């Protein structure tokens, strides 16, 4: 499942081809993905100009000059690929349509945006731009970890008295938006906090240390184009490479990379998800 860095990588790849550009043709090849598409989606998109391409948590938000916002969720396996030659940078033609190309947007600059999703856990919806924060997919999300409203005081306050493991608390989208299993494992390893420790038992100093660690891991992952474990691709079809930088995630049985630690990365299952951590230096 793409997490925040993968979605931000896709957003950054799409922006030069979409922002400021009109959608000359929208082709919608099926009635639904995870949920039904909104009524007359192709008609509502055709002719609209994309004023801004933003992101909230794992959702890409295309603000249109029609007063609506197109909400895009990649789901488990969704890819958004850019073809054509909008900036004179690309040399490839539009690829032949593939089986799972569900939505195709042709932009006035010649770019073609293709949403391909083999497993169809992705989603698209249209909602009034001035009410996008109230959309059911977005209304209960916590602050953006790279935004200004996420800081040490906020996190200390939200974790105070919570009996759940710190791992579960950091995965709770109501507390922080956009963090998933991979990056929570990496953040806990960097801060030396055991995923098993109850949130209320992590000292304020250590909770505070999570904030810069979260920002650092996410920023490094975005710079690497995200992590490509299964389905993530950048908009040019390239793989992200942050998976080569993992210190704990998916490294069961390997030596802990923390300087001076002679531990071995272990794996446990918490709430049905694998937690990779070093039992020696994560306490
Ligand atoms: Zn260690």
What does this entry look like structurally?
The chain has helices at residues 4-18, 41-45, 152-159, 166-171, 181-191, 204-223; strands at 23-28, 50-56, 59-64, 68-73, 79-83, 101-107, 112-116, 123-128, 266-270, 273-277. By secondary structure, the protein is of the alpha+beta class. A hairpin with a 4-residue loop joins strand 6 (101-107) and strand 7 (112-116). Helix 3 packs across helix 6 (204-223) and helix 5 packs across helix 6. The longest helix is centred in the C-terminal third of the chain and has 20 residues, at 204-223. The model has no long low-confidence stretch (mean pLDDT 95). The chain binds zinc ion. Zinc ion binds at residues 256, 258, 261, 263, 278, 280-281.
> What small molecules does this complex bind?
zinc ion
* CATH homologous superfamily title of the largest domain: MutM-like, N-terminal
Sum up the overall morphology in one term: globular
Strand order of the largest sheet: 1-6-7-5
Overall CATH class of the largest domain: Alpha Beta
Distance between the termini: 28 Å
Name the beta content range.
Answer: 15-25%
CATH architecture of the largest domain: Alpha-Beta Barrel
Mean pLDDT: 95
Helix content: 10-25%
How many domains would you count in the coordinates? 2
User: Helical region count?
Assistant: 6
Unreliably modeled segments: none
The structural class is alpha+beta
CATH fold description of the largest domain:
N-terminal domain of MutM-like DNA repair proteins
Helix/strand order, N-terminal first = HEHEEEEEEEHHHHEE
Radius of gyration: 20 Å
């Amino acid at each position: 499942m793409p997490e925040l860095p993968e979605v931000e990588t896709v957003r950054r790849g799409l922006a030069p081809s979409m922002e400021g550009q009109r959608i000359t043709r929208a082709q919608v090849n099926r009635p639904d993905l995870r949920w039904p598409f909104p009524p007359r989606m192709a008609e509502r998109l055709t002719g609209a100009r994309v004023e801004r391409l933003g992101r909230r948590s794992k959702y890409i938000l295309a603000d249109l000059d029609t007063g609506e916002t197109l909400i895009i969720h990649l789901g488990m396996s969704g890819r958004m690929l850019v073809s054509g030659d909008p900036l004179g940078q690309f040399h490839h033609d539009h690829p032949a349509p593939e089986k799972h190309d569900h939505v195709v947007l042709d932009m006035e600059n010649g770019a073609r945006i293709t949403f391909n999703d083999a497993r169809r856990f992705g989603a698209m919806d249209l909602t009034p731009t001035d009410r996008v924060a109230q959309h059911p997919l977005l209304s209960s999300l916590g602050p953006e970890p790279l935004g200004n409203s996420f800081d040490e005081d906020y996190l200390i306050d939200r974790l105070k008295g919570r009996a759940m493991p710190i791992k579960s608390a950091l995965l709770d989208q109501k507390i922080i938006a956009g963090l998933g299993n991979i990056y929570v494992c990496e953040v806990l390893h960097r801060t030396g906090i055991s995923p098993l420790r109850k949130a209320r038992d992590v000292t304020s100093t250590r909770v505070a240390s999570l904030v810069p660690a979260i920002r650092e891991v996410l920023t490094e992952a975005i710079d690497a184009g995200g992590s490509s474990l299964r389905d993530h691709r950048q908009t040019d079809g390239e793989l992200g490479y942050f998976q080569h930088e993992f210190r704990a995630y998916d490294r069961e049985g390997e030596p802990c990379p923390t300087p001076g630690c002679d531990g071995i990365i272990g794996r446990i299952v918490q709430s049905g998800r694998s937690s990779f951590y070093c039992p020696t230096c994560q306490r």
